Structures are given as C-alpha cells and as structure tokens.
Amino acid sequence: MLRAGLALGLLLVGLSLATSAQRVPPPQSGDRAGQATYDGRFVFSRIRYGGWYASWNHDYPRADRHLQHILDDLTLLPVNTTTSSVLTLDDPALFLHPMIYLSEPGFWPMTAAEGARLREYLLKGGFIVFDDFEQEQWDNMAANMRRVLPGLRWIELDLTHPVFHAFFEMTRLDFPHPMYPSMIGRYYALFEENDREGRMLALANHDNDLAELWEWSDTGQFPVNDTNEAYKLGVNYVMYAMTH
Hints:
- The protein has helices at about 5-15, 15-25, 60-75, 110-125, 140-150, 210-215, 225-244, and strands at about 45, 85, 100-105, 125-135, 155, 185-190, 200-205.
- By secondary structure, it is α/β, with parallel strands linked by helices.
- β3, α4 (about 110-125) and β4 (about 125-135) form a beta-alpha-beta unit.
C-alpha cells in the first residue's frame, strides 16, 4: 500500500477523475436505480431517504465515484469504479455492504422499521458514516441514533484512535469546513458497550463536509491540501470498515 508522495499522488489522481466521473449519469427513477450488482468488490454505498431529490443526494454521484477511484489507485482493495450504490435502510442488499454513508443527517427522517433494520445491520458488523451537517443539525441525527442504539453515547475521537491510521497516518484533524472556513470539524463515534477500544458502529463528521471536497477535487475549487486531507479521511474510513 502506498504512503509516500501523498500530496502529489492525490493531486494527480484527483485531477484525472473528471472525465470518468462524468461518464456515468445519476439515476433518474426507480427504487433499484443506482445500485451496483454485488460481485465482491467494494462499492461506495449511500443511504437514500425522502425520495430521489431529498437532502441525501448532496454531492452525489461525483463524490462517491471520486473516492472509489482514489481507493482503486492507492490501495490493494478491489473496487468497483464504474458505479456506486444507492440504498434505502429497508433494502435487503444493505447487508452486502460493510460501510454505508448518510449525507445531511440533520434532515434525515427515519421510520421505526428503518431504525430496526439499521440496528440489525450495525450489530451484525456494519458501519455507518454521517457527513455534511453542522451545529444544531446534530440533534436530529443523535435522536435517530438513540432510537437505533439506545444506551450508547457519542464519544469524541482524537488522533490517537486507529481509524485515523487505518491506511494514511493522519497528523491533524483541525480541518476547516469547505463552505464555512471558520468552522472546524469534530469527529464522534458510537462503540459497542461504549468502549472506545471496542468495535466502532457509527462515525459522525460534525461541522464538516468531506464529500464536498471529494466532489470538486477535479476543479481546483478548494485548496489541494484540504482535498487531500478529506481523501485521507475517506480512505481511512473505508479501510477501517473493511478490517474491523
């Protein structure tokens, strides 16, 4: 696995992503559109809620496809680079995906049936990442997760946690939000039995938006250093999910 030459490597890979990401249009209709056929390769799996054009689709599909290309180029993980998956929490295919991603959980409605399915998924070994939400938007996500996993509490993570060293060695976490530079992201997790040394079930990037940086990494809209750090976090999350 590659660790040397990170900044240049990520920059060059990021700049090469525009054409390939644009070849695959987003799904237009149908519950199964946007779902990759399972073939054993890793595929980025995003959770859909509230219809096709609700808050879940922020940065979709470019962010998802770009991260898949980074994983394919920099790791030994077999990755599906032709499409990503869009799933609802009640989709039986959920259990084929070791990591799922939910965008803008501040606007996430969750039925009792979806909560029960998410609980089953997480307790069977699944891992969920929440991204792209700020300030009081935390409250809706946290309320939903109390229904899913009552009794567990969010624990703030620092650089000592293994998730930040699963592939890339992170040296800092105080990255600014791409849209609100005065806002510095913080990272929280739920663990089995509230044990920080145990298995992580959920990870929340609060006051941050990693997918925004993934989506526009081929345009120069954001500083390369910030985009690199966002990719490092994304790769680490995937590699952690695949090894824990």
